[in-house]
Each structure stands twice: as structure tokens, then as C-alpha cells.
Amino acid sequence: MAEYGDRLAPLGAYFKDWPDWAQFLPGTLDTVMWEGEPRGLPWLTAPRAYMCRTDILKEVGWDRVPQTFAEMVKLAGDATIVEGGALQRQGFTPLEDWQEYISLIWTLGGSIYKDDGSPNFDSPEAKAALQFMYDRRRAVLPNEQTAGLPETTGALLASDLVACQWGNLWGAPATSDPIWEKIELFPGFTHPDFPNSKPVVQVFNDWLAIPAYSKHIPEAVEFLKFLGSAENLNTYNSHFGSFPPRKDAWFGYVEQDVVMKKMGELMGQYGVGFADIRETAQFRDVLMAEMPLYFSDVQSLDAALKNIQEKYTQILRDAGRLP
Amino acid sequence: MNPKLYTFLWAVATVVFIILSSLAVASVAKLIARWRGKNRTYQARTFASYFFASPWIVGYIIFVIGPTLASLYWSFTRFKLPDPPVWVGLQNYIQLLTTDDQFRVSILNSIYVTLFGLPLQLAMALVLALLLYRRLPGEQAFRMIYYLPVMLAANAAMLITWRLVLNPNNGILNTLIRMIEDIFPFLVPVRQGVVWFTEITNAAFLGLQRGDFNLLQQIVARGLPGPEVMPLWHQSQLWSKPAIIFIGVWSCGMMMIYLAALSSVPPHLYEAALVDGASGWQRFWRITFPMISPATFYNLVVGIIATLQIFEQSYVLTDNGGPAQSTYFVAYYLWRSTFRFNKIGYGAAMSWILLVLILVLTLIQFRLANRWVYYEYEEA
Description:
The complex is a heterodimer.
Chain A: H1 12-15, H2 26-31, E1 33-34, E2 37-38, E3 40-53, H3 54-59, H4 69-78, E4 81-83, E5 86-93, H5 98-107, H6 124-140, E6 162-167, E7 183-186, E8 201-209, H7 217-227, H8 230-240, H9 253-256, H10 258-270, E9 271-273, H11 280-295, H12 301-318
Parallel strand pairs in A: 5-6, 8-9
Antiparallel strand pairs in A: 1-2, 3-6, 3-7, 3-8, 4-5
Helix pairs in contact in A: 4-6, 5-6, 11-12
Chain B: H1 3-35, H2 40-74, E1 77-78, E2 86-87, H3 91-99, H4 101-133, H5 139-152, H6 156-165, H7 172-183, H8 187-210, H9 214-222, H10 240-251, H11 255-263, H12 267-275, H13 280-291, H14 293-307, H15 312-317, H16 330-340, H17 344-372, H18 376-379
Antiparallel strand pairs in B: 1-2
Helix pairs in contact in B: 1-2, 2-17, 4-10, 4-11, 4-14, 4-16, 8-9, 14-17, 16-17
């Protein structure tokens, strides 16, 4: 929404008296708001949580999932197997996900923007989150000459090649797979040095909107309301493996499927919307450039953060979001 | 309106437009011929020629010249969709050439692949052409087999296959290397040396690119890698460009050009050389290589143009320009700027800088060609 903002038609007047509006989850509504007014309708919700194979954890001496950042690093190392210079099992995946980095900043109680809208990558939270990702990566890949996992088909978590992963259910085994009896879903971990630290389930929300230049906004809104009915959202999301963004659409597969139900509970308790990420495409490129350089020891942690801070500030300035 | 009728009317309108525009172009050409004092027959022939060529000419103007001119205009604007373009003069160019780190990285990556990849492609193509030029039984079948990679190489499906082939863990290539080393153990230190050399050279390049030689120092300090260390191909920033070069060498599209050139070398030159007692190497270096130099020149020019515009390998093989932007080429950055960042003007400026770069390199090649390219007709 931060990308399109006022280029989308304001819909507040159309939804104000729509009784269904109250059914939409507050977290999903945050995603479609721009300057206090809804500019779209939530369409799907895909929370991202941590998942670990409890059988592999037991095998390496863990009787529970990690609860702190340090424990996650230790587990990632303990569950990794390196043979012949190549990974045979990876303790954690993914190792360089920029979206997880943002989630970790939030977990530590930080934010990616300061109050004046400038980037906040000179904060202790940003530093600690990136350091954690480095440590965890090093626990899995002892050096840059270690080959990654072999190619495989299907979900990694079901293949015995991975012990833990972060992500949504799209990258996980099918919820009907019996492997889920050996997988534990959990919201994340905390850091004792950060008092505001709390687990975060990052919630990706997709939405539909109407361009501001449309000449048929009332008709388009009616169609949007039709698409956004409880029944339609339930049907669509059941095929997509995601959650309908409204409470009264949480029937059928959402309640009957044990995995979906658990994920829904985590989302309800720990969910934070992946929203208001400004100039996302360029921001992603900056992170995907600087993070791997730090992870592979080409540059230091401070240099990586400095580069991210400077480059992202310039991007926001060029986009007119900063003076 | 009925959609089928709407489509039909558009089709009719398109055909009418093509006919009318062809008539217009042909009429203009005929008018010019008349002004130049040509006779009626000449005028009629001119009209007919341009009439039949016009569909292509008009299409070229509409779909190539028009967008090119629009791109040139946009390159001088701040044009970020969906806002209209705003004239900013040379700002895009200045930013690209002075402050944009990503552009600098992408240009250097493109130059790397051109500088190191192209000579290898030329060499491999020449070697294969020389092998295939021998009159051996089954040569047609061999030619077809060796030409298959040309047709398949940069195809997106093939690149996905290459990801599997180049997987450092269980990919076919590394597995093959291990199998060969099991049979010939003396090759293990050779492989270690090759790995180390590749890591050092690429780390040095990375250091020049980033202004930080930290990684190079670490690799030098670490010394020769252990026997278990295999090439990491597209999974490592030190191996991703060599992986792309490897695929380029494998495709060897230049081989057919060399094959045709070899066929045109007069046999009497070899006969005379044999009579004079020239060795195989001397015949190659003194006769073959100079006589096929026009083909080498052509391959060089076309190769530079092609390798500076690499895109698919970056997009498909290495996960969006990674790892660590090691395969972030100019064409890829251009695409991202235009279609992901919606910065049309910025992407347009990038494309014009790439054009100028390619033009300059091509002109330099043409200038230098006088020194080493031999055209047989020049002597005549």
C-alpha cells in the first residue's frame, strides 16, 4: 500500500455502512489503510512462523523448540550435518531471507523506520538481528567453501534435509501430510538483552484495490464486495493454502485442519502485518546486496548496516518520502 | 459491440492501415525518384519495390524506431509509473555514472563475463570447428550433436536444468569430477589448484569492485583448499560468473561461423605449405588463422554485443542477480529498474549508456581490425 497510496481509489465511504467490514481481521485492515482511509480489501493472509522437526531435534538432544536467539543458533549448528565439504542436513532454512530480517527486528522490539520516516538500521535491534542471522548461518555453514543441500523435490521439511524452517505454509509440507505429527509450529524466540523482545509471526496480506483513475468505482466496489464475501474468500483461500482475512470465513478447512488451526492461533496471538514497507523493490535489492556481503565476510557488520542505512535513506529521498 | 465483430473490424482496419501506409511510403519513394530525374520505368520499379518492402519498413518505424526515440526522451526524464514523465536533463545519466553503486557493480560484472568468457568461447568454437572440419564418417551427425547446445543453451528451461547440473552437492558436473578423480587420484590436487585459482581471481575482482579486499586476504591466508572442496558454481559469489562463462562456452554458437570460414580457405595454400615442409601448427598459425580472421572478427564483435546483454542466466540460474549481486548484470539491473522499480526514465538512461558502451567497443574493434583481420580480396 505504501507503494501505491493515493493512486488507489479511497473506499472509506463505500465500506462505512457495509456490515461485512467488521468481520475483517484488524491486522489485515492495517495493510489496506493509507492516510487513515481504506484503499483496498484484504484478500488473503499468509502468516509466517517457525517450524521444527521434533524427531530431528530429539535426535540431536533437544526435547523442545528453541526459545531464545542463542538457542536457535545452537540448535541450527547441532542439527546440521556436513560431510565431504557439503551439507547433508541443514539445521535451519532459509539463511539469508530479507523478510525474516525485518521480522527479527520486530521480534527484538525495534522498527525499520524512525519517527521521522527515515530508516532505522543504525538501531541496536537492527544490529542484533543481523548479527544473529550471521551467527546462525555460520553454525550451519562453517565456511564459504561448504556446498549447499542437494537438489530435491517437494517440501524440504518433509525430506529430512532440514531440521527447522521459517516461512508460510506454501513452502511447508501439505497439511494433510502425516509428517506434521513430527513438526512443531512456534512463533519464534526472545532475546534476554532486549526487554521489549517478543515472538512475532509476520503476516503477509494480499489485497485487491481499484485504481483512482477508474470511471466505474461504485460498480468496482460492488464486485469487490462480492469477491470479499465470506464464502468466496473461504473457497479461494482453501485452494491457495492461506487464510481468509475475515473471521466469519474461518470455517471448513480452517477449523478442521489441525495445522491451519494452530497457525491461525499463532497469527491471532503474535501476528504483525508485513505492511508499510516503503519502496519495497529497491529496499529488497539493497538488503539482498548488503546482507550476503556481510554473511560471506566480504564486509563487516557495521559496514553492512551503514550501507543499508545510507542507500535506503537515499532511495526514500529520491522517492520524495524524505526531505 | 459484439466482441467478434470488434475483433474483425480491428483486423480489417490493420490490413487497411498496412496497405495505405505501404502506398504512402511507395508514393514518397516514387516522388523522390521523379525529383531526381529518373525515367518512368525507374519510378515504377521504385514504387513497386517500396510498396512490397513497406510493411516491414512501417512496422520497423512503429515498433523499433518509435520506442527507441521514446526511450531516448524518457532517459532525460524522471518517469516513475504511474506519474507522467518530468524533464530532468542529464540527472539520470549523472546519477548512474557517478553515484549509483549498483550500476557500477553491474557494469563490472558484465565486463568480467565479456573479458574472460568471450576468449574462451572463441577458442572452444574454433577447436570444435577444426575437429568437425575433418572429413570423417558421421560428420553430419556430429555437427548436429555439437550444434544442439547452441539451440538450447540460454533457453529458460535449459537454465533450470543447468541449476540441477551445477548443484555443488549432487549435480552431474561435480559428481562427474569426483568419479574421474576416483579413477585418477592425481587429478585431485589439480582440482584443488583450479578451485583456489578461481577463488583468488574472483575474490580479487570482488575486491576491486567493492573496494574491499577482505575476502581475498582470507582466501590467501587459508591457503590451498582441502580435497573435499568442490566448485560451488551458482551457489557462490566466487563461482557464479565462472558458471555462466562455462554455460556460454558449452553453447559455442560461433562454431558454425568458423566452420563456414574454414571451408573457404583455399586448399592450394595448404598444399604449398606441405610442399615447403610446414608443420601442422605452422599451417594453422600461418594459413588457417589469418584466413579465418574475418570470422574471428565477426564472432568477436557479435560476442561482445551479446555478452554485454546477458539477462536470462542472471534471472533463472542464479536467483535474481545473486549471490551477493555477483551476477547482477547491466541488462538485469535495467530490467529491474524498469519493471520492478517502475523507474522507466532511469532504466531508459541505463539502456542508452549500454548502447554507447557497445558502440564504442565495436568502433574500437573496427579500428583495430586493420591490424589483424585479413580479407583475401584486399590483396587482389
